[in-house]
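Page 47, continued from p. 46.
Same chain as before, 200 aa.
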Amino acid sequence: MANKKPIIGMKFGRLIALHETGKTKRGYFYLFQCDCGNTKELPASMVRSGKTSSCGCLRSEAMSAKNFVHGLVHSGSYQSWQGMKSRCTNKNQDSYKRYGGIGLSFDSSWQTFENFVKDMGERPVGMTLDRIDNSKGYSKDNCRWATPAQQNRNTKQNVFITHDGETMCMKDWSNKTGIPYQTIQDRVKRNKTPAEILEK
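Result:
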């Protein structure tokens, strides 16, 4: 009894010791309340040492996460996540020089696919991962699933024109006004004002 350490009310990981339930060759046993709501009788020595830190729910959660990832390894979301990481970290990747090579990175929480897909959801058919602001890296606030047309408009090569409080790229202004794209492009090159560029 001299080596018995009182642990009632103490918390270890997810477990709180409620009361002693007995003693065996393995030592003193206690009834523990887990954060998940379950109770379980466990040897105090296992809990105090950290070998057991939950009623078993931690292991179940880990297995569920593993199965979740395994079930999506061939999904569009997983491929986009892998591509994002490769562009930012793999120096042998051709596109690295345009991403990681110029300091672009991704949110640290996106090291795991679970967090990425939690923030972004599953990739819709026909869409790809797009950064809203191309000067910034990949994060929940700066990323979206975009169509190829949206991706093409969101490049550094695009010229945006603001007129009457509305900002669009040349292609969109062409579609809206009916002015041929080449005409708008030529006027931009000649440094015309927005009003002159969009004059019919």
